[in-house]
Amino acid sequence: MLKQVFQLSKFPGIDTPTLRSNLRAHIFDGALFGFATSLISYNTILPVFIQQVGGSVVAVGSVPVLWLIGTNFPQAIVLRFMKTEGEIKPAVLKYGLLYRLSFLFAGLFTLFFVGHLDATVSVPLLLLFIFLIAVSGSFGVPPWFQIFAKTTPMKLRGKLQAVRQLLSSSLGILGGSLVTLILFVVPFPANFALLFIIAFVFTMFSFQFLRALIEPPISAGRPLAPVGGILSDGMAIVRRNKNFRNFLLADAFTLMSMSASGFYAVFAIEKFSLDASYAGTFTVIVMAGMVAGNIVFGYLADALGHKINLIVLAGSSALASAVAMGAGNILVFGAVFVFMAWTTSLQGISRLSFVVELCSEAERPAYVGLTNTVTAPTLAVGILFGWIARLYGFELMFGLSALFGMIAVGWLWVKVTEPRYAGEGNRTA
Q1: Domains recognised in the chain with CATH numbers
Q2: Can you give the pTM of this predicted structure?
Q3: Of 28, 62, 352, 361, which one has the fewest beta carbons inside 10 Å?
Q4: What phi and psi values does residue 226 have, to the nearest 5 degrees?
Q5: Closest by alpha carbon to 312, among 413, 210, 206, 180?
Q6: Does residue 86 come out as left (phi exceeding 0), alpha (psi in the -120 to 50 range) or beta?
Q7: pLDDT tens, position by position, 156-179
Q8: CA atoms within 13 A on the CB side of 17
Q9: pLDDT of residue 221
């Protein structure tokens, strides 16, 4: 089955049994992990959780900001301590286990403390906990992406990411239904605690497939460059690679636009007087949208490159905010979560995959780390969005988000070049 889906015969120089085994491990690791995280989505579930605890609109808006900054920003630190030669898999497993254990700790904290603390105490503590969970996940991103690139040929990466997300979002439809049931039946805060604990269990299942990856040796004559040295020359990398510099600017506007995503579920629940359990229904819509999107976007990336996907990503974010701003009923508002699903799919398939095609193998860890470090602070606009929503209304905030998305579309279209068609001169040596 894998041979037909990925057309492995096109890669005659690769050990096909090993490649097939690694593809299987990547797919099931991603599918199970995606199902688990659908239970505690930082876009649809955690903002409602903070609202239920008693958080203000600013606190609700801080959830995706803290999550994404925590996921991305510390990677410059991680890269200074990352191994640059030998096996990368041990680091992937160590940081992957740390990330999974943080879900368990969050569940236990919610179960035993949230119901007994005042909101003025529990809300800041939970926001801190969300940030620390994201930070623990960030430590595994550079080594994981390095081993992902080492174990997957370039022209299979988009399709593999799409298949991973297709399966995880298909399972996520069940996850969203489970969320709706648990939030409706189980009393607060045990309902959210149970979601964290179930997520931990399924991430541990995914961990077994992560352990099954077979890491190939580093290619002879192509040792990884010292990461610390590359990072200390980070500004030089940005200066000498114009395409990378233009991508970073477009990526910053895209992320600023996506900062509105944490408000969609809370806004819909308040505007249309819905029960909190609708957060699970919104998750179902997101996952169904990801199923539809992943069928197309992975093949599009492998056939035409990742730039087209990045343009659709920014446009989808702008459309999500535009629909949220004008939707008059919950049925129309459902389109918001479809567009949000596409942004999630496209970001997973193409954002970092585009980056690794801009550089050599030796520079890959630094480029990935620099991307997340340089653009992550722009996500702080989500906190500003919270203030705008509280003082001037959600509509103005959604309008600004749509504007940022359209700026990103224009910059990507005009200024960013698809590296596959630019020749080797587009990459740094």
Answers
A1: 14-212+222-426 (1.20.1250.20)
A2: 0.73
A3: 361
A4: -60, 120
A5: 413
A6: left
A7: 777 787 788 778 888 888 888 899
A8: 0
A9: 38
